[in-house]
């Protein structure tokens, strides 16, 4: 039997007699489906079928993988490009007939359901095969009954069923309907529910009907009853049947024929091919017709005990990762439900605790086979996941779960089965509310159109088009497995190699939108995302709680996400849609203050973000690395910097090196008083010399270069080292915050304006700390003789090679006086001039430009001016911008004059922030 691939739909090429033979042969087969043999499902493929089930259709691949457990060999045969023995896809529609003729050089007949049903009923009547009719209204079914009795008096009709649509999307109602059909002993079931509902219902419940053959023949029930007039022969012969039907039913069919079908027609010729002859599919054995869950997943290793979790270092089928924060009410339920899953497959359970101050850790400690990792603070959901990802170990897949879930029986096995059979990169389950109802968890990619639709309609008018809603409210979507854009991140199974390729979750999203970003990166990496409704988990919705600040963060992170992937104008349009949504709901108590926060971007830094917490042992499970601190006469500040790292140094969790360069105060003595801190002396009073000397002495990677007056918590350091060691980035820095509490009013105004400039949060410079991997450091080898080492390092890397992490912020104490601020600015601008001058010298030299001076950064002032102007939102921000500009202009002028008078080396220093 020849087959063609028409935009992802595999069509079987048959003559009418061959198709009738296939159907009647299966219908009269003595091998009943209740003995384990799946029914033959017959589909007529037209342009609408391609739009629904083709390569870009919503239900692509769905019919190949029904919810029932697969018959041995059937899934394999499908993956090799055939329909196997379970599906027979017939050629329907003039465009498809023409394309099949072009590909094969042979003319094929059009086998629409309305064409084949008459001859098929004639055969059924002559051979005594029982036929049932499913679909149409009750009135249509009554008319059909009289028509069949009159025209085919000897046809053995087993029954007529006219279910309501709400029954077809209700699982229990559909099971009851299927049982009714089974009890009627139907051999051929004509299913006229409309596309795609009929095919999806057949895929899920066809086996339960007991019928040997199911025919997805759309409007055939209406045609047979005479309630819809068939197109005349001249229309069918000229490929105009669609126009005839559109004229009869414009309201129902306009979208199908005028919107959905044309793209499929345009793709038909370009994305179609003739397939080689399929290999025979393996048949199920008579004594074991179906796989069970035990057959689908390997049992745990002999050394493992059912119900217990795999230890670190052992292979596991699935590594379960969860992040907790004050979840004493739900974490026990999660662990107990996972133990039930561990009877049939090997699970490793790793929990990152984000600084809980309730009994969460105490409860977890009662399970000796659960690995609990303390993050040292509230790192947010993405930060917590990154902290435990490296503990996943050797496994086939990683399952990320919220701590307020209960995993229903066999859910993980069913997720694994879907992943293996479909080749999906990520699979998500059906989420249930605490009362057992389905939670609306499926989402579409955020866009301006979906944001406007959700702003105007909210949860009302749920039947609106998909382009006008980010949430998928269609009940049918939650009944059948299919590809999706993304889903609520409460539970997702990730194929392990994909998890390694994607690397760290983006920690700029403290909570909310981190899963949207992760799903998008997976799709852009070529992975498919599947929804599997057979796998169920109950979500108690208690993981993150609710508050005005969290509600504001949810809206703001939506904007941050769109800004990450879209241009300025598009992101501005999306932000306007989010503002509209909040403006229309400003009267609600739960939305109070959100609109004001959205309008004032300077206040976004005050929303929930990673924070360090008290921890008993900061050095426990700490990633290895080196911290290098250059120090020149820093006796007043070095102790407070080292106190943050004292335990890490004393336990040798990290290597801490203080390089005293030209010190004439007590810096060396104070630093040496900290156990484990290695202190070296460098003769020259040069920060660059100190960095290079310390690099010579250091033995570990990655390395963090920390100014002596910057306080960095162990949590922030851990997040930087983790990111550098476990991702593809070459350089990273933590978040920072300005401490201007003791600064003069003009200085405070300057730093308020600086906070609003996006470039401040997009580069490695500005925080007084940055980290490098060994490969990143090799980009330049040694630090050159430049004042602005952080600017130099920033310019070595493309944007995708460096990361700004949303850590607990390091504290950058600002100058207190205007004079001190001018001194710092002069030093910064001199460093920029040195860097630009060396870049120019390198480019003008003979030969290739050294990689030391290559980079994508922008050290000019034009971008800063544009961003400064764009940061103005009102009188206060306008005043701050003027203050900022006046400081910059004066500092640049003073630096230019100073370089003319004394071009030699100098180091302006802010003594005001170092005052005791």
UniProtKB/TrEMBL annotation:
PANTHER family: RHAMNOSYLTRANSFERASE WBBL. NCBIfam families: wecG_tagA_cpsF. InterPro entries: Glyco_trans_2-like, Nucleotide-diphossugar_trans, WecG_TagA_CpsF. This is Exopolysaccharide biosynthesis WecB/TagA/CpsF family protein. It comes from the Bacteria. It comes from Paeniglutamicibacter psychrophenolicus. Residues 321-443, 626-745 form the Glycosyltransferase 2-like domain. SUPFAM superfamilies: Nucleotide-diphospho-sugar transferases (SSF53448). It holds the Pfam family Glycos_transf_2.
């Amino acid at each position: 039997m020849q087959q063609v691939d028409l935009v992802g739909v595999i069509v079987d090429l048959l003559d009418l007699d061959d198709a009738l033979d296939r159907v009647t042969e299966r219908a009269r087969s003595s091998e009943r489906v209740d003995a384990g043999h799946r029914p033959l499902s017959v589909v007529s493929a037209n342009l609408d079928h391609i739009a629904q089930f083709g390569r870009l259709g919503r239900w692509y691949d769905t019919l190949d993988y029904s919810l029932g457990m697969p018959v041995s060999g059937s899934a394999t045969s499908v993956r090799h490009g055939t329909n196997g023995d379970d599906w027979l896809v017939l050629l329907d529609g003039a465009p498809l007939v023409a394309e099949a003729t072009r590909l094969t050089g042979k003319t094929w007949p059009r086998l629409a359901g309305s064409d084949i049903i008459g001859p098929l009923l004639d055969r059924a009547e002559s051979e005594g095969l029982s036929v049932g009719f499913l679909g149409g209204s009750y009135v249509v079914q009554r008319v059909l009954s009289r028509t069949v009795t009159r025209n085919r008096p000897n046809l053995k009709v087993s029954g007529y069923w006219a279910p309501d649509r709400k029954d077809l999307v209700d699982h229990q109602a559909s099971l009851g309907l299927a049982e009714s059909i089974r009890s009627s002993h139907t051999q051929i079931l004509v299913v006229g529910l409309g596309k795609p509902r009929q095919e999806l219902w057949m895929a899920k419940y066809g086996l339960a009907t007991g019928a040997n053959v199911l025919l997805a023949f759309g409007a055939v029930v209406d045609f047979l009853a005479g309630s819809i007039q068939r197109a005349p022969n001249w229309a069918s012969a000229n490929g105009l049947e669609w126009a005839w039907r559109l004229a009869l039913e414009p309201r129902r069919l306009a979208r199908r024929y005028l919107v959905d079908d044309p793209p499929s027609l345009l793709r038909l010729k370009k994305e179609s091919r003739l397939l080689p002859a399929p290999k025979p599919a393996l048949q199920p054995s008579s004594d074991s017709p179906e796989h069970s869950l035990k057959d689908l997943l390997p049992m745990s290793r002999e050394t493992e005990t059912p119900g217990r979790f795999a230890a670190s270092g052992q292979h596991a089928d699935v590594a379960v990762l969860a992040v907790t924060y004050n979840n004493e009410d739900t974490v026990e339920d999660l662990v107990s439900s996972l133990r039930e899953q561990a009877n049939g497959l090997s699970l490793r359970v790793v929990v990152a605790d984000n600084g809980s101050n309730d009994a969460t850790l105490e409860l977890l400690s009662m399970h000796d086979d659960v690995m609990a990792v303390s993050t040292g603070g509230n790192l947010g959901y993405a930060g917590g996941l990154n902290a435990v990802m490296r503990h996943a170990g050797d496994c086939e897949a990683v399952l990320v779960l919220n701590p307020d879930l209960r995993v229903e029986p066999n859910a993980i096995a069913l997720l694994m089965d879907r992943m293996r059979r479909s080749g999906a990169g990520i699979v998500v389950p059906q989420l249930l509310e605490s009362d057992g109802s389905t939670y609306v968890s499926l989402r579409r990619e955020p866009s301006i159109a979906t944001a406007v639709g959700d702003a105007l309609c909210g949860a009302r008018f749920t039947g609106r088009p998909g382009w006008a809603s980010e949430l998928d409210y269609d009940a049918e979507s939650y009944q059948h497995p299919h590809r999706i854009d993304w889903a609520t991140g409460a539970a997702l199974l990730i194929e392990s190699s994909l998890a390694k390729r994607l690397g760290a979750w983006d920690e700029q999203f403290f909570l909310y939108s981190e899963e949207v970003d992760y799903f998008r990166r997976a799709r852009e990496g070529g992975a498919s995302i599947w929804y599997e409704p057979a796998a169920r988990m109950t979500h108690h919705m208690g993981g993150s709680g609710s508050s005005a600040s969290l509600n504001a963060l949810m809206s703001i992170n939506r904007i941050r996400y769109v800004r990450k992937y879209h241009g300025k104008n598009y992101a501005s349009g999306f932000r306007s849609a989010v503002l509209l949504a909040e403006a229309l709901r400003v009267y609600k108590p739960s939305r109070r203050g959100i609109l004001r926060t959205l309008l004032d971007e300077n206040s976004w830094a005050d929303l929930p973000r990673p924070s360090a917490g008290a921890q008993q042992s900061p050095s426990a499970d700490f990633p290895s690395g080196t911290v290098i601190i250059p120090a020149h006469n820093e006796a007043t500040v070095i102790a407070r910097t080292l106190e943050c790292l004292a335990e890490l140094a004393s336990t040798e969790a990290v290597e801490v090196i203080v390089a005293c360069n030209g010190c004439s105060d007590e810096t060396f003595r104070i630093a040496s008083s900290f156990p484990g801190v290695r202190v070296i002396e460098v003769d020259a009073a040069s920060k660059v010399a100190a960095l290079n000397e310390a690099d010579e002495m250091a033995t570990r990677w990655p390395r963090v270069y920390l100014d002596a007056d910057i306080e960095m918590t162990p949590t922030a350091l851990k997040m930087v080292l983790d990111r550098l060691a476990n991702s593809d980035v070459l350089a990273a820095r933590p978040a920072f915050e300005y401490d201007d509490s003791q600064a003069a009013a003009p200085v405070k105004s300057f730093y308020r304006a600086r906070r609003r400039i996006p470039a401040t949060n997009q580069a490695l410079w500005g925080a007084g700390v940055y980290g490098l991997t060994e490969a990143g450091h090799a980009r330049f080898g040694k630090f050159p003789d430049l004042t602005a080492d952080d600017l130099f390092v920033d310019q070595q890397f493309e944007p995708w090679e460096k990361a700004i992490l949303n850590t607990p912020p390091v504290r950058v104490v600002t100058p207190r006086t205007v004079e001190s601020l001018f001194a710092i600015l002069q030093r910064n601008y001199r460093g920029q001039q040195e860097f630009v001058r060396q870049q120019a010298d390198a480019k003008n030299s003979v030969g290739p430009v050294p990689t030391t001076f290559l980079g994508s950064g922008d050290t000019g002032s034009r971008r800063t001016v544009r961003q400064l102007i764009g940061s103005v939102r009102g009188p206060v921000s306008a005043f701050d911008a003027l203050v900022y500009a006046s400081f910059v202009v004066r500092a640049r002028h003073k630096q230019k004059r100073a370089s003319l008078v004394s071009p030699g080396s100098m180091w302006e220093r802010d003594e005001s922030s170092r005052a005791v």
